[in-house]
Amino acid sequence: MKSIIAAILLFCVCLSASGDKAVRLVLWEVENQSSVHEVLQSSGYDFDFTVLTKDNATEFIENKLNNEYDAIFFPGGSGHTEATDLTPKGITAVRQFVKNGGGYIGICAGAYLATSNFSWSLHLINAAQKEPWDRGMGMVTINFTETGNSKLQVPYADIPIFYGQGPILKPFDDPSLPSYEVLAVYTSEIHSKHTNETKGQMVGTPAIITAPYGNGKVLLSSPHPELTKPPIVKLLLHYVLYVTGNL
Known about the structure:
Elements: H1 2-11, E1 23-28, H2 36-42, E2 47-52, H3 57-63, E3 71-74, H4 79-99, E4 103-107, H5 109-114, E5 127-129, E6 138-144, H6 146-152, E7 159-163, E8 169-171, E9 181-186, H7 195-198, E10 206-213, E11 216-221, H8 233-243
Parallel strand pairs: 1-2, 1-3, 3-4, 4-11
Antiparallel strand pairs: 5-8, 6-7, 6-9, 9-10, 10-11
Helix pairs in contact: 3-4
């Protein structure tokens, strides 16, 4: 246990300084205020945040989202609600933003939003999810693949992280999209709800995946580094740096 805690504390060490140019990050907070903003600010990295709320989201997404911004971040909440609040025009705008080279980070609901098997989703990545989706919440562990260690620069194993009913991802069959790469897998599971169906369904499945979409990068995280106690600051930061080409 002490070694795990030590690893987490080491993993949460913040980067001290960024490059000359701040990362321009659009953060979706229309449904509720997430802790992503606070945790990323605590990293010490130089960010220029545009926070979207009910008052400004529609106007910004439909008319101002362009590649002067580096990435857009959709945190937890409800993927379907996020899609509804985006509007059809906004969904097209987000797709075009990523296709033109913008980064996309989706955690939990934001991951559901980017998948391809719902009529309302963004169809940014060739992934679907296992049902039932509501299997319970709590701490789990994840292990990074060799690809994950390389792309995210996080050489750790069996990291405790908070799971809040994010998607249990599996490949989809959209021939227009490339296959995703697995960056981390679950090494433990939650099955406190629908136990007969969910038990044994989670271990070994992707926890974090990535794929290109046009000229942009998409990263989906089923679990929540920002809601883990303490937050896994470096992992959350590296999500953003990876999709923006700053790692």
